[in-house]
Specification:
globular; alpha/beta; 8 helices
Length: about 250
């Protein structure tokens, strides 16, 4: 059984989807979780978890806000064991029709937000003697797909940043890994057109979308002491979707 008893984790994007699932699963394994989000729904996530959770409003594009939530966790508990940079938004659209305002928005949230979280987690953890950074990428980072150029670029950047952090901070006892999810049945998937979701699932060898808790369980393992020698990895969890040649 995964054991996170006594560990403290900051989770961005915890208001919904994979971030909310991670907060719930981490708390279930004994961690105290700082649930951060820009939406306000972080309050709901923390309330549902109970005493093991704190809510913290955070816009990941604003470095000072990301630093503040990490500092808040350290100030209250005297340390920080894991930072999960989950917050992100999708983007679909033709590259030829791309508006640069959309480019800026996607890169700011999906890549800059991860850079902020990784930077300040690494600072705190390296000074304290160790910790775990988990960054959410996407199978979109692994290849081209019509309409996802900017999103794919941002998520590929997440993997690159994670690997660099893993190499740079390993000597301080800090591990950094990227989680690379495929289709998961989150609130966002439920709001998407059914025909689109059915098309994506048709391309998944497992024949279904993932349960958000399945991704959270992977994150919990990576944050645990059982994963001490896993560093700089990009772990795909997609039901076999990205393993196909066509």
């Amino acid at each position: 059984m995964t054991d996170l008893a006594g560990k403290v984790a900051v989770i961005t994007g915890a208001g919904s989807g994979l971030g909310r699932a991670a907060a719930r699963v981490f708390a279930g394994y004994g961690a105290t979780v700082f649930c951060s989000d820009i939406s306000g729904a972080e309050q709901d996530t923390a309330a549902a978890i109970g005493e093991a959770a704190r809510a913290f409003h955070c816009d990941v594009t604003q470095e000072a806000q990301v630093e503040a939530v990490i500092r808040a966790a350290c100030d209250e508990f005297g340390g920080l064991d894991a930072v999960l940079n989950v917050a992100g938004v999708p983007h679909f659209g033709s590259l030829g029709e791309l508006e640069m305002v959309d480019y800026d928005r996607i890169l700011d949230i999906d890549l800059r937000g991860v850079v902020h979280g990784t930077k300040h987690a690494a600072r705190v953890m390296s000074a304290a003697g160790g910790g775990v950074i988990l960054n959410w990428s996407s199978v979109a980072a692994l290849g081209g797909k019509r309409g996802t150029a900017v999103y794919s670029a941002a998520k590929a950047g997440v993997i690159a940043i994670t690997k660099a952090a893993a190499v740079e901070y390993a000597r301080f006892g800090v591990r950094a890994n990227a989680i690379v999810p495929g289709m998961f049945m989150t609130e966002a998937a439920e709001r998407a057109p059914k025909a689109l979701i059915d098309e994506v699932i048709a391309g998944v060898p497992a024949g279904r979308g993932g349960d958000p808790d399945e991704c959270a369980e992977l994150a919990a393992f990576l944050a645990s002491d059982k994963a001490k020698f896993i560093n700089g990895a990009a772990l795909v969890i997609d039901g076999g979707q990205s393993a196909q040649l066509a």
